[in-house]
Amino acid sequence: MKEKFLEKLKEALITYSFSTKIPLVLLDENGETVYSVGNEEPFCKFFKDFTGEMNPCSQTHLYAAKQSEKLGEAYTFFCPAGLIHYTVPVIKKGIFRGSVLAGPILMEFSDKLMISEIMQKFNIDLKYLGMVESKIRSIQVIDPTRVRYLGNLLFIVAFSLLDDEKKELENRKLIAAHQSDLNEKIQDIKDNDNVEFYSYETEKELLLKVRNGDIIGAKNILNDMIGRILFASGGNINIIKSKTLELCTLLSRASIDGGADSNTIIDLNSKFLYKISNIKNIEDLSYWVIHMLDSFTQNVFNFNESKNPVLIQKCISYINEHYNEDINLETVANIVHLNPSYFSSIFKKEVGVSFSNYLNKIRIEQSKLLLKNTDSSIVEIALEVGFEDQSYFSKVFKNLTKMTPKQYRQNG
Known about the structure:
Blueprint: H1 3-20, E1 24-28, E2 33-37, H2 42-51, H3 57-71, E3 75-78, E4 84-92, E5 95-105, H4 112-121, H5 129-136, H6 144-159, H7 163-191, H8 200-211, H9 215-232, H10 237-257, H11 262-278, H12 282-298, H13 309-322, H14 329-335, H15 340-351, H16 355-373, H17 378-384, H18 390-401, H19 405-411
Antiparallel strand pairs: 1-2, 1-5, 3-4, 4-5
Helix pairs in contact: 1-6, 4-5, 7-9, 7-12, 8-9, 8-10, 9-12, 10-11, 10-12, 11-12
């Protein structure tokens, strides 16, 4: 670590330690102590002296630091002696350079059982019982909720000096969260004994969500598709990449069909294809597919330039889920707690079409699928997608597609 950076980090750690009364240790990339602030807990000193060269603490600290780096946030853990620590990584230019270790602390007051377990686990002679009790009972007790916030605060303190690394850690945190979601999806697939890749129907549903600009709905479907790809491929990254490249092409076409600027999407597509081809692990690959989906779908309605992206995405997702019900402007305005008139103006400004036109567009897109893939009558399809009668359905359909529902079905 460079001297100037090290001095700034030391100053920040001193402020944190003296404010919280929690000892801190700055470790290098090998888990060796670079600097410490605050008094070392008497029990830790005793434990190190007792275990000598067999002391397991440094390896546990290093493992926890790497977990913190992987997760992109503070990592709380039990040390070999059963005491609580938390740690944050120190990263420079994307490379792990060390970590800051906080603790030990306790989340509840020690009792005889806890002390007995420590004595037995490490074969500590009973003659040291009184000494171990007194040293452990001197350790600060902090409730779990406060520990979590103290960990977050240490992360903020450490990375206040590392502006260039914040984005990288945020990406890692998102990757870890996405991987957790995928693991749940894969477990569901295992439980249902379904080891096949996603169906053509699922693919069509995803593309329709993208064309409609429904980021939330599209993401839910894509997560399930990625889970199936990962499970059915047996973890073969070449198969996963092949399926991912197919998805990239499909998503880019769907976003252009939805109204996104073709030059922007072609440029994005090229960048994603290059990025995906160079990714080496499955976790990063699955995260980048979701990132790719966000970029393509956001461009359908220029969400990147939106002043209310979260609100509009929530509305679009609601419409896409409830288009076949008796919903109207007032219904959706109430969902986002806005005056209908004000909501109407925001929606048209952000999406580029009025609420009623967008709702009709969604209903007609859904009706196209039914016309192509079912034998249902036009009356039945009209009712199924939310229109009250066939006449109005046919009128809207022709306005948007330049042909009647019957002509559309015959031309299929």
